[in-house]
Design brief:
Length: 483
């Protein structure tokens, strides 16, 4: 008997937040259409599968419930946000629940480009994985805007701070200009950001502030995001991670029902494909424990399993991750302050400290950011053309090197994001020189201000050189690709 074709249904949850009642209704619709499991995507969206014969039922129910969805498409990426971190992984910002909600409510269109709304004080939600990356400034209700033009690594800093209420309008106008002028701003090797700025600002009067200080990124550390945890006002939050990335539909329905019973209004999806519930009372912990017991949910996975970014619904990536995690466990590998991504497809937008990038069927490149901060776009190649069976060995070696550098204070975080033409990272490989001891890079496009070497100076033209980080001599540098 021929197996029936299944369809992938995607539902966006703007900002990664959904009311318990709305999610319960969506789960009922998915269940009525034959779905048994739900997956969370790395842009905080939901996925489930429905057979061809049940699509008509699904479409009817979705229409009645006024739920927006896509079938086997991702034309409208979800707006992601750091809302999930509020009061849990981040307490020092002016960005609170009400501000997030006000901004979400002002969106009167479905974005076709990726939009990120993140607080600069947190490191749980990626800063630059979107096309329009709004990052909080120190001034209340103002944001930096970093634009990554579609299908490129060209990143442009908007020259003024953006006001909260203008975020939806600027996003709409900017998207329209990009999509109507693809020959200028979409998948182009050269883009004129000043022209783009002038076109967006034409006939638009936005509230703004001058940028007096460049954006400062925090040192990266991924908070432990699962299990029961106490936070403000004697409340608890619960994070649930699933090793196979699928949540049983009935588990989620029971969670929603308990949320409604105990007056927990919202649930949160995370970019790490996990679910988080805030505002749990001490008296209700027993009921939440009952659900975890009923579905045998393990909530204490090792950190070196939790700190991974994978493409959505990619079985090959998940299989490779499980293999590498087993090797990490056997080695008892520490991965604190590191995170990993597996890229099976080019230009997936995944960011990480260390990236395993597919070259062909069984061979991969291992790259890392120069400072091991996943929000950096300055990548260096650690090993090229590595067979999948040897990936674990080299990843363990790279992690060991990272901690050696860390204890020797030889890793200097990128604290300032500066917008200059020289700082744009192109898709094509660039040949640079890398220190064998500390991985520092000499790139003639940057020069070396510490050693008084001007931009554009070829490494071969330098007679005497010492590494600005570890002071190794010129012979310690090797020619390599910087991607």
């Amino acid at each position: 008997m021929r197996e029936e074709v299944t369809n992938c249904i995607k539902v966006n949850l703007p900002g990664g937040v959904v009311s318990a009642g709305d999610l319960y209704e969506l789960l009922l619709i998915a269940g009525n259409a034959g779905a048994h499991t739900v997956s969370i995507g790395n842009r905080q969206q939901l996925y489930f599968e429905v057979a061809d014969s049940r699509l008509e039922d699904l479409e009817t129910d979705m229409f009645r419930a006024e739920v927006s969805y896509e079938i086997n498409h991702d034309q409208f990426p979800n707006i992601i946000s750091s809302y999930v971190t509020d009061n849990i992984f981040n307490t020092e910002s002016w960005l609170k629940e009400g501000v997030y909600k006000d901004i979400f409510d002002l969106f009167d269109f479905k974005p076709r480009l990726k939009i990120n709304l993140v607080d600069q004080h947190q490191t749980f939600v990626p800063f630059f994985s979107g096309n329009f990356n709004f990052i909080t400034a120190d001034i209340s209700n103002y944001w930096y805007l970093y634009i990554r033009f579609p299908k490129t690594n060209t990143q442009y800093c908007w020259p003024r701070l953006v006001y909260s209420e203008d975020i939806p309008v600027i996003s709409k106008v900017a998207e329209q200009i990009i999509m109507h002028h693809k020959e200028l701003f979409y998948d182009q090797p050269e883009i004129d950001p000043q022209l783009f700025y002038e076109m967006v600002m034409a006939r638009n009067n936005f509230v703004s502030q001058p940028i007096t200080d460049p954006l400062k990124l925090p040192d990266f550390s991924l908070p432990f995001y699962e299990g029961f945890n106490k936070y403000v006002n004697d409340k608890y939050w619960l994070g649930i991670y699933r090793r196979n990335e699928w949540f049983p539909l009935q588990l989620l329905k029971d969670i929603c029902a308990l949320c409604l019973k105990t007056r927990v209004g919202q649930l949160y999806t995370t970019p790490w494909k996990s679910l988080l519930i805030k505002g749990i009372n001490e008296d209700d912990r027993r009921d939440w424990g009952f659900i975890l017991n009923k579905y045998q949910i393990n909530v204490r996975h090792a950190a070196n399993e939790l700190n991974w970014q994978l493409e959505n619904l990619c079985k090959e990536s998940l299989k490779l991750k499980k293999k590498l995690v087993r090797e990490f466990e056997a080695y008892d590998l520490r991965t604190y302050r590191l995170c990993f991504a597996i890229k099976m497809q080019p230009k997936t937008g995944l960011l990480a400290s260390i990236i395993i990038k597919k070259r062909n069927t069984d061979f991969f490149d291992i790259l890392h950011t120069k400072d091991f901060n996943p929000n950096s776009k300055d990548f260096a190649v650690f090993k090229s053309n590595v067979h999948r069976n040897k990936l674990g060995k080299f990843l363990i070696e790279l992690c060991r090197n990272f901690y050696t550098l860390l204890i020797n204070n030889n890793i200097t975080p990128i604290l300032e994001i500066v917008d200059t033409k020289e700082h744009e990272i192109a898709d094509e490989s660039v040949m640079v020189y890398q220190c064998k001891n500390c991985f520092s890079i000499y790139d003639e496009a940057y020069g070396d201000e510490v050693n008084g070497i001007s931009v554009g100076t070829s490494f071969s033209d330098i007679d005497v050189y010492s590494c600005p980080v570890c002071e190794a001599n010129k012979d310690s540098f090797e020619l390599m690709e910087n991607r």
